[in-house]
Design brief:
It is a single chain. This protein is of the alpha+beta class and about 160 residues long. Strands 5, 6, 7, 8 and 9 form a five-stranded mixed sheet that branches. The chain has a four-stranded mixed sheet with strand order 1-4-3-2, with helices on both faces. It has three helices and nine strands. It is globular, with a radius of gyration of 18 Å.
Amino acid sequence: MRGPAPTIGRMAIQRLDHVGVVVDDLTAATAFFVALGLELEGEGQVEGRWVDRVLGLEGVRAQIAVVRTPDGRGRIELSKVHTPAAPQGDRNAPANAPGIRHIAFEVDDLDAMVAALRESGAEFVGEVRQYADAYRLCYVRGPEGIIVELAEDIR
């Protein structure tokens, strides 16, 4: 799509509220994001006709955990769907596979973050690299194959 973003009538997107990520191990995924510095905002169970109708599925029963960035402006909704069963995805999909491939966070000290992640045994996708005179960044693979980009603004 080229040109200005379309609006529907007089309405337009205001902000990104959250990104939803479906996981098998909600505890491990939540712990991973909390260890990165996100804060647990809440946890709960969702089920019933209302969620069935929103998702277009029948018999939905899921546990969710919402984590937010320290500034409170970004959230990730982690969901463990107990029913209905879903097909498994490729947890080792490369960064160029179709679909949402990574979630990016700006960090204030990439070297410290990378050192802490290496010490904890994190799996890095590539290596720390610099993009122009703007960012130093790297990718790390978390639980469930979730890829997280960590970027330090060096401008």
